[in-house]
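In response to the reviewer comment on reproducibility (Comment 2.3), we provide here a single inverse folding case reported in full, input and output, so that an independent group could reproduce the run without further information from us. The structure tokens appear first.
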């Protein structure tokens, strides 16, 4: 088993993606995909727990860490991000499908990839944490507004209130001010306040400010188109939802309709906040290993 990560570069659409490999070279391949404003280092507590069993691949998404940072908003569309994922998967495991574990915007982009036709041949399983399929979210909201009940309206309002910060991310000057304000005390302090993460577990990435500001393009390029015009997106690969019941950004009940869209769905709720890959690394790793083992 390798403990030191081997770095390589995968080029897709002119974007250079920094890819890191460690773990058991004879194990099945699992690809870990981070969200905003993280890098592959998000998984630093989970990788060692998977490395004995799996060949573990992490990478910095476009706009983050050591990967290329596009300036134009259009480069951050879900279709581009899904294309990046498949480019990495094809480079590291061209002959076998990969398992996937993804968080936040990483989960959103893998949902996009999972609904594409090639998913059944390239993705062996997908474990999603705190990142919805935006089309499913749009359909969920629409269904509760067109046939309103008191509970449904309360849920939509609660999710809207939880996501209000995304409105500020659509306004360049305001988004910069908000990020500065949120991170003024440092990333560890923010995660402690927002997600009840022990600051001792957090290492602040040196590219955090750039990643956070450029990463707002994820919101600008995707939220309004997908939520206002949601597509029918069916997923035929095995999917595990790890739902953080204390997540203040992604409320757990919006996953209640996911089984309408996903043929093979497993759901596990854990009492965690948004950044559970840091605060609940043991639980995430164990649920992922058990789920993949159950598919054998």
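Designed residues, in position order:
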């Amino acid at each position: 088993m390798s403990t030191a990560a081997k770095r390589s570069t995968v080029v897709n659409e002119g974007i250079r993606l920094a890819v890191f490999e460690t773990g058991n070279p004879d194990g099945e391949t699992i690809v870990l995909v981070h969200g905003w404003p993280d890098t592959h280092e998000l998984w630093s507590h989970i990788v060692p727990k998977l490395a004995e069993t799996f060949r573990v691949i992490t990478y910095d998404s476009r706009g983050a860490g050591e990967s290329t940072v596009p300036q134009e908003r259009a480069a951050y569309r879900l279709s581009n991000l899904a294309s990046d994922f498949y480019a990495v998967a094809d480079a590291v495991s061209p002959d076998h499908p990969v398992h996937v574990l993804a968080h936040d915007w990483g989960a959103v982009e893998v949902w996009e990839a999972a609904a594409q036709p090639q998913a059944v041949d390239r993705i062996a399983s997908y474990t999603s944490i705190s990142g919805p399929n935006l089309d499913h979210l749009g359909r969920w909201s629409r269904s509760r507004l067109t046939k309103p009940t008191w509970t449904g309206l309360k849920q939509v309002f609660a999710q809207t209130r939880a996501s209000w910060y995304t409105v500020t991310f659509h306004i360049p000057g305001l988004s910069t001010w908000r990020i500065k304000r949120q991170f003024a005390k440092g990333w560890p302090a923010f995660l402690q306040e927002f997600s009840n993460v022990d600051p001792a577990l957090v290492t602040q990435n040196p590219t955090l400010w750039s990643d956070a500001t450029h990463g707002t393009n994820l919101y600008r390029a995707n939220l309004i188109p997908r939520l206002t015009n949601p597509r029918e997106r069916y997923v035929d690969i095995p999917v595990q939802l790890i739902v953080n019941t204390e997540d203040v950004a992604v409320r757990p009940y919006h996953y209640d309709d996911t089984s309408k869209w996903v043929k093979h769905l497993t759901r596990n709720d854990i009492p965690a906040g948004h950044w559970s890959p840091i605060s609940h690394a043991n639980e995430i790793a164990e649920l992922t290993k058990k789920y993949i083992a159950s598919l054998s």
